[in-house]
## 1
Amino acid sequence: MNPETTPTVSESDQERLREAIQRLLVHGAILREDHRDLYDWCRVQRANGKLDELATLVGLKLHWEHDYRLILAMPQSSRLLRRFRLDESLVALALWYDFDRAVKDDGKTPDDVAFTIRDFNESLGTKFKDLILPKPTRMREILQLFERKSLVRLTDTAGAGGFAEMVIRVLPTIRFVVPFPNLEEWQRQRDRYVQAGAESEEVSDEPED
């Protein structure tokens, strides 16, 4: 390509590109509700392909989900993947299920799926019977991790009801990060994790020599 005909990127656009890529790397998504100006700028700039090109260079593939008003970054390099621990996987599976049922069965919009941690814990226990589930301190750590990764939002964090009455709002990103095509596949994955959890508990219960 002739350098003289290559479009230049202004200093302000370079700063916006840098901000967008850094946010996608750290948080996995850009949501319009959180960063309206940045999201709108990225949408306008999509036509020139620079953000997609830069994302590819750092090992990301962008999904432009305009219906949900979000830009999602899916890692294409194993170096960028974060492997969930078993308890994190169980929480992610339960969040996907509760989001899917709230939208399909209860008629809620994808922006309006929310419940207290108390209610979520009860449903988690129903889904994964006989497994050791996260204690409150660990559950807080998992939910805070998911909040940093743009999967949930935690509200009423200073409420008088304490941790159990905090509200989890599940974000539409859960559909893409935990991409089950149907409940049958969810059930298969659930059974696999339940089996893995049961086996790990059996190992941990063995007496030491």
## 2
Amino acid sequence: MKNFGKNVSIKAKNQPNLSEKDIFINVVDILDQCWERSNQFTSEWGFDVSNYDEPFYLVIENLLYIKYGEWKTDIILWWAYNRFNENNELMPIKLNDHEEKTQEDVIVETPEELWNFLKRIDKLDKK
């Protein structure tokens, strides 16, 4: 492994400068696809890849934690891993506005809607 770096060439992808929102949507979408693929291996083919995939998920989760903090990462991971109930129905996220003393069930179907939900919470926190 000493010479590992000699043969590695890392190049930036030919993408225009992406916004944080674009990168977030891309990462969450890929995470969702990977999670679905892992579950498909188990449910359709009986092949459990969790021991193989677990380190990759931990890296992603930890990077999300570094960037977005604990509570936002919890929401992101809930969306990626647990947004569907046992009947495959999309579950709502509860939005609590403590200042207004209101609670709302919000359906978040896409990574972009998840981004918008997190930004909406940011605005509530700044009140």
## 3
Amino acid sequence: MVKKVFFWSITAGTLSTIACLIYDRIYFFALSADFSKLINIGSLTGANLIGCLLVGAGFWLLNRWLPKRGELVFNLIFSMLSFASVAFPISVSLPLEIKHPELFPGLIVPMHFFPAIAWYTVRPIFMRPGNGA
């Protein structure tokens, strides 16, 4: 079980990182808003992989503590935390030398949902329906 959740986490983190990088490039070319000093390949990779590994640890723990309802509780907590995490990029003040700071939330807010989307997308690869954990 631990091995399965670990690989699920790595896969979701990698998929989420790729989605973030693609979205970053699309956003840059569409709006010419360059936030590369704040958001770059390293920060996106680190945030997504570490985030998904923490999510995997939470999934494993909840399924261990609550065998029948662990996944349901996990899904509720993960979804709520994804929505709550949006508060940070909306409230952050960017340095004055950054052009178009008002466009920053439009870049980063959707990225907060990519780990959850990736996690739920690759679930069928690692979990058989009705198998629970």
## 4
Amino acid sequence: MPSQKKMGESMRKIGISEEIITQFDCTDQKGNRPEPIIEFIDLMDKLLTKEQCLAVMEREGCCKGGQRDKDCKSFGNEHKDKPLAEKLALLSTVQYMMAPRQNSDGSFTVTMQGHQNGVHMGKTTCSCGTIKKLKQPFSVSKTYCGCCAGHFLYHYQNALGVKLRLKEINSSPLETNGEQPCSFTFEVV
């Protein structure tokens, strides 16, 4: 789940003016309720550019430790001398890292696959525990999904040995009631 406090800190780091930042409640809420975070992100969508929203959200992301972290770092060490295209082709061998597809401009796109737990009516759903608390029907800005993108950005950087930037949140089950999966595009910085 994104952190209001951390998002406020990220806004300062990327140079958002204090005049804009003071319009946000950058204190972390008690509990694990989605509504304050969704309100925060809705305000981001209103007051920030798309690029600023992506830059803030790519710094988010939960689960940056554990087995996935170990697996991605191990993959990175094992394949450090291979070209990026070859690493991307091999990355699907790491559990839960999907099958990134390299684009003609050098960026790559990752699409989450599979139905998880039926939070949405469609074919795919959000894996965020906080979102699972919302009652149907609901629609949440795909900017929220930048948190999940931040999780993958962290792990892909470790696996690929390159610095990345979130270029686009292509689709989200949050905006489409599960009809479209999460899909992110990253570019090498």
